[in-house]
Amino acid sequence: MFSTLTLGAQQAPKPTAPAVPPQAPPLTVDRDPVRSPDGEQPTSVTGEPLHKEGGEGYVLHTNVEEVVLNATVLEGSQLVQTLKRENFQVFEDGVKQNIISFQHTDLPVSIGLVVDNSGSMSKKRPAVNKAALDLVEASNPEDEAFVVNFSDEAYIDQEFTSNVNKLRDGLSHIESRGGTALYDAVVASADKLVADAKRPKQVLVLITDGEDNASTLTLDQTIRRVQELSGPVIYTIGLLFGDEMSHAEVRHARRALDLLSNETGGIAFFPKSMEQVDEIAAEVARDIRSQYTIGYHSSKPTSEPGFRRVNVTAEAQGMGRMTVRTRTGYFPATRVAKKPAQRK
């Protein structure tokens, strides 16, 4: 399992193969820091470096037996929730695919609440915790969630539960100190979702007020690891207002959060004040519960390797131009994530 990366004030990540990283911390229970037991390099399933296809976006990996897409449809800025299967078209590498499954129901979700606990967050945590709990309470009652608080290390402070009081207790571990190992927390949390989640639909909600300055992997490696796990969808909330950061630091932090969200089918939010965070949490809950789930079998043989670009369009009589937000593609294979180690 992997759980770290560094961006700091670097330039935009380069699509090159990274050096083998050191062992990185896995999610463990009872305030034990995240540790990676295997020290394994987060390579792509094809052995290729993380890259952008045609300069348009990072790619995701999934099992080719059935490609499942969680899609949000917008007409302008308004969610569209009245579409049928026949309103959608799915293309893989430009070839129209046959949709074999379609749902537009409020499916239960496994959610990771991943919250920055670094020193700069001390005064922001009460409002952040309230927003995170409001998000859970606005979600499907059959959802399950876990809590990860991170500074220079990532800790799981509440295992999967549907009990809001237990999640509140997990979020109450406020020890705001140290740096920001954001990428460590993202990757360890994604690994945990694949290893332990009961729901096939999986989401990370990441809340931070800065750029990564304490991880051991790069942004490229983080995105690649999430891709190898076929998700989850990542929603990010960047509390980048105030004068604690330079313009360059804000720009780098914003770009990293945009990439984490956009390439997984999520959204990056950048409120201008703490008063907006609760409203954003409600929007995230609404977005999750309003998605269409579309499945198809690829027209390509399973044995054919390589990246497969996915594009989804939607049209309906009487509707204007609609945009569909979902992941951008996949590789026809994946590795199974190892379960997080428990500290003895």
Question: What summary fits the major beta sheet?
Answer: 6 strands, mixed
Structural class: alpha/beta
User: Can you name the CATH architecture of the largest domain?
Assistant: 3-Layer(aba) Sandwich
Spatial ordering of strands, largest sheet: 8-7-6-9-10-11
If you compute it from the alpha carbons, what radius of gyration comes out, rounded to the nearest whole angstrom?
A: 19 Å
Describe this structure in words.
By secondary structure, the chain is of the alpha/beta class. It has 2 domains: 67-104 and 291-330, no CATH class; 110-289, 3-Layer(aba) Sandwich (Rossmann fold), CATH 3.40.50. Helices cover 22% and strands 23% of the residues. It has 6 helices and 15 strands. The protein has helices at 125-137, 164-171, 182-196, 219-228, 247-262, 277-289; strands at 67-75, 78-79, 88-92, 95-97, 99-103, 110-116, 144-150, 154-161, 202-208, 233-238, 268-269, 292-296, 308-314, 322-325, 329-330. It has a 6-stranded mixed beta sheet, with helices on both faces. Strands 1, 2, 5, 12 and 14 form a 5-stranded antiparallel beta sheet that branches. Helix 1 runs antiparallel to helix 2. The longest helix has 16 residues, at 247-262. The protein is globular and about 50 Å long.
